[in-house]
Design goal:
Two copies of one chain form a homodimer. Chain A has a seven-stranded mixed beta sheet with strand order 1-2-3-4-5-7-6. Chain A has four helices and seven strands, in the order E-H-H-E-E-E-H-E-H-E-E. Chain A is α+β, with helices and mostly antiparallel strands. The first copy, chain A, is globular, with a radius of gyration of 15 Å. In chain A, strand 3 and strand 4 form a beta hairpin. The first copy, chain A, has a single domain (about 1-160), classed as Gcn5-related N-acetyltransferase (GNAT) (Aminopeptidase, 3-Layer(aba) Sandwich). The interface of A and B includes residues 72, 77, 113 and 143 of A.
Chain lengths: ~160, ~160
């Protein structure tokens, strides 16, 4: 597996799983009916943001991550990031590799912390992964997320100092 | 004191205290060198956001608040808001009146919670005011804010269900 900068040419490979994940509405706070141009704008970041893809030996896109400052001004030393793994390639460490990459990027860029603003508490695989990478659940916003099947559930804010 | 919708004609009255507060860099996460067009774009919101001003009997602008969804999609029932009071008119309840107005707006609009993402812990007057209006400190991001005089201080995330 290789993690490299995402280019415009990667978007057609990202969009199908991005769209499926967003439309399911279980893990992301994007509008479930987000269309392709809005999806591209939200995911394919310009500096100081950055987007990468994880690809296999054949060049197949397995997943993607975007990273960016989470605040401006006096809190601009806090980064954030988002991750999507193609469900067809789940369970093989793609999310973990992307997470490690993003944390390394944040350290190199001089960020002092990374914050995830909205981790749905029922997304237990992601919560466990971020914990294993050093993140703590700082708080859980009660009924912060409306899950399409489970109703109102908590929304974690996760954080780690770098 | 009256609270009413802000119009484009109010911006010249807002900008001087907006600019002074942002340039001081002690309470807001805006870039301290934010220029006037960027300030206007960040503060004068379009629907579904909304911006109001508090004015006295003579029509003088005493302070302003903006309010907006804090998340999209499955968390779009969480609102947020920001407040600026002209320091010349501090201590006379302008911030409290704006806070009460914003909470009433959020309830009428059907939001289920209000979240403040970045309340600097040394801004004790604001923290006490939001607590008195029902907000809780959900967590404090350690060293989340770089205060120009006090160095790295905590950044509160405050929340209340409506």
């Amino acid at each position: 597996m290789l993690i490299r900068e995402a280019t415009a040419a990667d978007w057609p490979a990202i969009w199908p799983f991005f769209h499926a994940i967003v439309e399911a509405g279980e893990t992301y706070t994007y509008p479930r009916d987000m269309d392709e141009p809005a999806g591209r704008e939200s995911w394919m970041l310009q500096p100081p943001g950055r987007t990468v893809v994880a690809v296999d030996e054949a060049g197949t896109v397995l997943g993607s991550a975007k990273m960016n400052p989470n605040h401006m001004g006096g809190a601009s030393h806090i980064a954030s990031a988002s991750f999507m793994v193609d469900p067809r390639y789940g369970g093989r460490g793609v999310g973990r590799a992307l997470g490690e990459h993003v944390l390394a990027w944040a350290r190199v860029e001089g960020y002092r912390a990374m914050q995830f603003n909205a981790v749905v508490e029922t997304n237990t695989v992601a919560v466990a992964l971020w914990k294993s990478l050093g993140f703590q659940i700082m708080t859980t916003l009660p009924e912060g997320f409306r899950h399409p099947a489970k109703g109102y559930v908590g929304l974690h804010i996760m954080y780690q100092q770098l």
